[in-house]
Amino acid sequence: NLEGGTLTMEEIIAGLRLAIQTGKVIPVLCGSATLNKGIQPLLELIAWAFPSPADVGEVNAIKAGNNELETIKIDAKGPVLRWGWIKF
């Protein structure tokens, strides 16, 4: 809301974080891991702008073995969840 004039840096950051968390904004950065170019800005953006798993609350996942969709509540004291893939 710009009716009050200008936004503070805190308001801009809060709005960007919310937009990323809700999927309204998808940041795009370019870099090269082999040349170590653009990696630090990417890591810094992930650290301060992307939601932590605790902020998400719940995720939908497909259970391995039976392909059933289930909702998993994010809980720091709950079981460890892993996701991975192998590409040959």
Account of the 3D structure:
The chain is α+β, with helices and mostly antiparallel strands and 88 residues long. The chain has one domain (9-73). Helix content is 33%, strand content 11%. The protein is built from 3 helices and 2 strands; from the N terminus they run αααββ. Strands 1-2 form a two-stranded antiparallel ribbon. Strand 1 and strand 2 form a beta hairpin. It is extended, with a radius of gyration of 18 Å. GO terms for molecular function: GTP binding; translation elongation factor activity. It comes from Candidatus Hakubella thermalkaliphila. Keywords: Elongation factor, GTP-binding, Nucleotide-binding, Protein biosynthesis.
Describe the SSE topology.
Elements: H1 9-22, H2 39-49, H3 53-56, E1 58-62, E2 69-73
Antiparallel strand pairs: 1-2
Task: Pick out its properties.
single chain, 88 residues, alpha+beta, two-stranded antiparallel sheet, 3 helices, extended
